[in-house]
Design brief:
It contains ten helices and twelve strands. The chain has 330 residues and is of the alpha/beta class. GO terms for molecular function: homoserine O-acetyltransferase activity; hydrolase activity.
Length: 330
């Protein structure tokens, strides 16, 4: 984390009416800002700002001569304040229910403003990161060329809200809250078929391999997250809604001038592809520059972190034609 940079955001007003001071940590990859088109990458629930390089969680997609080529694009990634990646106790947010995904979107825009960035070539994000991308585009509909939400949605469905509640109950009542919450969450991110393909009921030392795998994920997350951080990140999932106090979906989304490229996973059981298909069909009569793509995979929601060949084929046309004029310092 030696590449982390910090911005101090003072007197930020939340949707809840509360005001706070916070530190916003970020990383950059590629050319110096102001010399190339800028891509903002929003991380998912357990992700962070390290999106490229040796330990980058999206290193197969972002880097030199990758789909988002850091020879030609400046990539910025913020950490959601309070996600704990900076290991800074003062940045840990205890009152997690005070925050919404829109608050995070506003904070990210403030961070970009501090960096003198007023226009983006693209905002891209998977899962929660895609929801925050939607919120950012709705807040500043003319400030980006491409909006790319992946395995995501512009709103939290009843299914997402219900599972956030289950996670929150585990986090507030279990003896090993992060560990146990992660066991449940992993079953939302994969499919029965994916687990069968991988484990096939095999055992090791009198325990099923699927059980070993789940316990391993639980322990890893327990070592990565503080409890308040995980509570916050889980809570944000249910707050995504670009229409809250803003009108209906068609009104809000049609004002976004960017090309919207929606990418779903056909087997996703968390953000259903059918929801995205309906959104695109409803929006298309009012907005021509929108496209829909679907990753075919047995792996469910996590396919956006697995099926890199398919994802690259979808994104290559966007990132191979970046206009040299879309630089972004004001």
């Amino acid at each position: 984390m030696e590449n982390l940079h910090k911005l101090h955001i003072a007197n930020h007003a939340l949707e809840s009416g509360k005001t706070l001071n916070l530190n916003l940590f970020y990383e950059t990859f590629g050319p110096e800002m102001g010399t190339a088109p800028i891509v903002l990458v929003n991380h998912a629930l357990t992700g962070n700002s390290t999106v490229s390089g040796k330990n980058g969680w999206w290193q197969n997609l972002i880097g030199k001569e990758k789909t988002i080529d850091t020879n030609h694009f400046t990539v910025i990634a913020f950490n959601v304040p309070g996600n704990g990646y900076d290991q800074n106790p003062e940045n840990l947010i205890e009152n997690y229910k005070d925050f919404t995904a829109r608050d995070i979107a506003q904070i990210f825009w403030k961070g970009l403003q501090r960096l003198e960035v007023d226009h983006l070539f693209a905002i891209i994000g998977g899962s929660l990161g895609g929801g925050i991308a939607w919120e950012m585009a709705a807040l500043r509909p003319n400030a980006l060329e491409h909006l790319i939400p992946i395995a995501s949605d512009w709103k939290a469905t009843d299914w997402v809200i219900a599972n956030v509640l289950v996670q929150d109950q585990i986090l507030n009542n279990s003896d090993e809250p992060i560990h146990d919450a992660r066991l449940h969450a992993m079953l939302l991110y994969r499919t029965p078929q994916s687990l069968t393909l991988r484990f096939n009921r095999e055992k090791s030392e009198n325990r099923y391999e699927i059980e070993n795998w789940l316990f391993s994920h639980g322990h890893k997350l327990q070592n990565r997250f503080r409890l308040a951080s995980y509570k916050l990140m889980n809570h944000l999932l249910k707050t995504v809604d670009i229409t809250r106090n803003c009108g209906n979906f068609i009104d809000v989304a049609s004002r976004i001038s960017a090309q919207i490229t929606i990418v779903s996973v056909d087997s996703d059981q968390f953000y259903l592809a059918e929801e995205n298909r309906i959104d695109v069909s409803e929006l298309r009569p009012f907005k021509q520059n929108i496209s829909y793509h679907e990753i075919r995979s047995v792996h469910g929601h996590d396919a956006f972190l697995i099926e890199y060949d398919q994802l690259s084929r979808i994104l290559n046309p966007i990132f191979s034609t970046a206009p040299a004029s879309v630089y972004c310092k004001s």
